[in-house]
Amino acid sequence: MDPIVSIRNVTKDYTLGKTVVSALRGVNLEVHKGDFISIAGPSGSGKTTLLNLIGCVDTATGGLVQVVGQSTGQLTERQLTDLRLHAIGFIFQSFNLVSVLSVFQNVEFPLLLQRKWTAAERRKRVDELLTQVGLQSHAKHRPNELSGGQRQRVAIARALVTQPQLVLADEPTANLDSVTGQNIIDLMKDLNKQQGTTFIFSTHDPKVMSHANAVVRIEDGQIKDRISAAEATLAVAAGH
Amino acid sequence: MGQLRVLWQIALRNLFASKINVIIGFIILGGTFLVVLGGSMLDSMDAAMSRSIIGSVAGHIQVYSSQSKEALALFGNMGGEAEISALDDFSKVKKTLETVPNVERVVPMGINAALVQSGNTIDLTLGELRGVLNHLRDEGESPERREKAESLKAHVRQQVEVLKADIAKARLISKASAEDAEDAAVIERVSSEAFWKEFETRPFDQMEYLENRLAPMVSDADLLYLRYAGTDLKAFQKNFDRMRIVDGAPVPDGERGFLFAKLFYEETLKLKSARRLDKIKEARDIKSKRIATDDELKRWVKENSTQTREFLLQLDGIKTRELVARLQKHLGSKETELSALLGSFFTTTDENFDARYAFFYEQVAPLLQLYRVRVGDTLSIQAFTKTGYMQSVNLKVYGTFMFEGLEKSDMAGGLNLMDLVSFRELYGYLTAEKKAEIAELKKKSGSREIAREGAEDALFGEDAKVVEASATPGLIDDSASFGDTAQALRNKELASRVYSQDEIDQGVVLSAAVMLKDPTRIQETIAEIHAAAERDKVPLKAVSWQEASGLIGQFVLMAKLILYFAVFVIFIVALVIINNAMMMATLRRVHEIGTMRAIGAQRAFVLSLVLMETVVLGLLFGGLGMLFGSGLVGWLHSVGIPAGNDALLFFFSGPRLFPSLTVGNLVAAFVIVMLVSAISTLYPALIATRVSPLRAMQAEE
Ligand SMILES: Nc1ncnc2c1ncn2[C@@H]1O[C@H](COP(=O)(O)OP(=O)(O)OP(=O)(O)O)[C@@H](O)[C@H]1O
Ligand SMILES: [Mg+2]
To answer: Distance (Å, rounded) from C-alpha B632 to C-alpha B609?
Structure first.
């Protein structure tokens, strides 16, 4: 089976004036359908950079990035946007809900962008998702009337409403307390199990890592190894 | 559809989410309000002024000779009259113009200026006295005539006393010059009993001395500069609906006559003290000024209380006593000196002004001659003909008129009217009968060169010889005074002569006003007139009323330009402010926009998002602005805007402007506001589309 994400020899340089920062230096990675993968590494190691390349919000300096079978380097800005809209769901560290829209409207938003749903279909789909994240009673609320965990659940609903093949989450629990963070990861894991949606998320938190099928450890812009969650937990405990 | 709805909803909800939007909203509201109000005011002003100018002298189009050196300026130029060549035969011009289908009517015209000797008070009194003396001589004694003569003599003697007092006063102030000494000698002589005893036996000799020596000493005689339009008065009155007779009556059809412009009549011919009273009253009543606080009013009051000499000169003995009695009673004063009484009477305050104003017109004015030229008088107008000769015409003053809406304009209110035949005579164009008269005289006595000064004598004196002024054959000089009977008879005959329409039409004019059937087609009709003129070989140039009215026409345009410029500046400022505000709003939202882009919104969506917000702002606040604007215009339409000063009176074409609103005003306001908002949002919108989806990943500032 073809991988959903395939990364070969990818480099990413940031040019800051005269100095060039190499955020990624020859990364290789394959992610398959149904994976629940955590990307771990110290601060500045390149986790966010890697997720941005996979999420098609940025393009690589060198190497090949293939997402759902498409080489992102060959796509136009417009096509990349379309790819994001139809194939990828995003969960952000700071939730990123549209503050003037209600919970319902936030979740409905990607469906509106897709322009292929009737109002009834949209309503059905949004209701389903809100039920899944346990917020059906909050549909009419505004984001600022919700707690952090609730907001992130809305964000998860929004990311999954279009039934994307891949969901990306850059430190989804960083702004939440550990219990709430656990709940959010549990929710993601449930959705992964039930619907087979592929998740890639980055985190510093070993407890969060522990839910992953696999942990990809990254250091200094390079993949160090790909280990199991149990190994990762041990490694963190050992202080590596 | 759903997308539009969400855009609309985001825009609507963002509206009150930030203060910036409310600020922008109020700018849009104010802008729309101003455009609606200003637009409607401007249009109403333009309509009012067009109506006044078209309906007073200009017509829709003016035609004049294409050979003219300068452009036609109906209301005059800064440097005097424009140099316009004559159109030799109006009837031909009329015929040509009437072939143009859109031409409804044509009114002949000629504008010129002349000098009028208004005559001083002593002149007038002496003139009256001479008239009575002539009657006594020609028609014999009668008790009434004798009494009239005695009263006039007493009046002259009183005037002499006033002058004597003046000279005595002047002596006190400065040393007498040789000239003063001469004046004093004249006064001495005419105030002596001996002079008046001699008057009984040789009245005409003594009259001559008075007329030649005494009258010139009084300096209140001015030479009036008189602008007039000669026209077919009947056609003029019929076609110019803004013209209204104020005093007197219109000149009878076909007759010669003169009509004063009311403003000119008031300003230059009214007794100065009375005129100042009128002006003080107007300033108090209309402009709510107060004598106590306004310097100009104070000055007028001062001038009125010190400049009373005119009264002393005008009143004869009986009337002086009467006025003294009336003033004593009104003022509760025991003062017997008239000048002192007048001085305290005219020292008006805000408290007593209205009472004194009323008293003046009820009790004082009837004793006076309020105007130097009265309706019914004959006016002697002197003008330089085209070739430089002084030509004089005596015309009966039938009344005064004004152009409604332009009554306060010095330029339009200074244009008097006379019949076309008299205009032609003053212009130096000979009427058929004058030509015949000269031909007759020539035949009688054989052509002989005579000096210009002698021409008048030669024409009308007992021993009429031959007339042919040396420089311009056929032109005569009427400047010598009209004294003798033959001439008076001729004048009488001329004054009552009725001219036929052909006589009025066939002759020289300077321009013609053209009234159109369809006034919206001015430019096309001008082209048609030019074509017709070329075809008929008439040297015609046609111009629109705006062009023909010269400075006044330009005032309208200028006012418009100034207002448009102001609106333009306001909107440039609004543009900059909105642009900056929108810029700030956009920068604040990069995180949100980045998120939308990351989720999959295309740039076009972001663009419509920002534009939609502007549209919502524009619709809401622009709509409110229009509502308030129309509300105010509606209210102003019912109460009218008072013209606070003379400039506004002119622009409003009347004491009040009643602005009205057209759909055009609203549409213009809407389009302008939407355009300005759209333009000012373009750059921020562009910036918004450039926001990278990466911004969604970065922490919110
Ligand atoms: N926009 C950028 N411009 C320049 N350098 C950048 C930019 N983004 C990241 N970098 C650099 O690239 C490297 C990798 O950064 P990245 O954000 O991917 O690290 P990270 O693993 O996500 O760290 P953290 O755990 O702190 O989020 C860092 O050295 C960083 O300074
Ligand atoms: Mg990061």
So the answer is: 34
